[in-house]
Amino acid sequence: MSGSTNQARRTVYRQAFEKVYENLRQGDRIIVGTITGRSYIDFKPVVDAEIPKQSIWVNRITFEQNLAKTKKDIQANIEKLLARKRGTPHTEIINSLNIADKIFHNENRQKILIILSDMIQDSREYNFERVNVTEAFTSRVIKDRRQQNLIPKLDDVKVYVAGASAKNSKKFRSIEKFWNRYFIACGADFSLHRYGHTLLEFERET
């Protein structure tokens, strides 16, 4: 989740979290963190929890108690995150995707990445507010990061975006096109139907 956000967008994020929470199943792992200017260097998840899985080795009462406690802790930590008043000076989305690569690297379960952000990259390298996010710009970013071996591997990772915004529709579309190409370059499972201001759809494989 982006660390620089306003109250209206926090409402959007809360609604997205509710959808995710409703879809959590036994054995799922959920990791939640903030996107800041230093995410790649000192990322520390706000939530890192695994939903208890019922087993013949654990009695029903103990299982239900553990399940209730885990879900309560997840909700409490997310509420603390959403209640934070102070934002962050930069939004380093591009490098944050490399954290997702590390998290999903050896994961055998279904992999879903939900990015809650306006998607306006704001870093020393790239500032989408100040540059024209053209096809040529996108190609240059992808080429530069490939040469530095910095394109994350997000094969089989289903990506959703909620909170996307921009100062006008032209800027919105140009940023949307950038991320479409960048996610494709990462090998992610991405569709523009999953990019928007709100989490309009959230599907899980059965």
If you had to describe this structure to a student in words, what would you say it looks like?
The chain has 206 residues and is an alpha/beta fold. 42% of the residues lie in helices and 11% in strands. It is built from 6 helices and 5 strands. The protein has helices spanning 7-22, 39-42, 60-83, 93-104, 135-147, 169-185, and strands spanning 29-32, 47-50, 111-116, 157-162, 195-196. The chain has a 3-stranded parallel beta sheet. A two-stranded antiparallel ribbon has the order 1-2. Helix 1 (7-22) runs antiparallel to helix 3. The radius of gyration is 18 Å and the shape is globular. 28% of the residues are buried.
DSSP strand content? 5-15%
Helix content: 40-55%
How far is the first residue's CA from the last residue's CA? 26 Å
Main sheet attributes: strand count, strand direction, barrel closure: 3 strands, parallel
Mass-distribution shape: globular
* Radius of gyration based on Cα positions: 18 Å
If helices are DSSP runs of H or I spanning 4 or more residues, what is the number of helices?
6
Structural class: alpha/beta
User: What is the helix/strand order?
Assistant: HEHEHHEHEHE
> Biggest sheet: strands side by side, in what order?
3-4-5
Number of E-type strands: 5
Low-confidence stretches: none
Whole-number mean pLDDT: 90
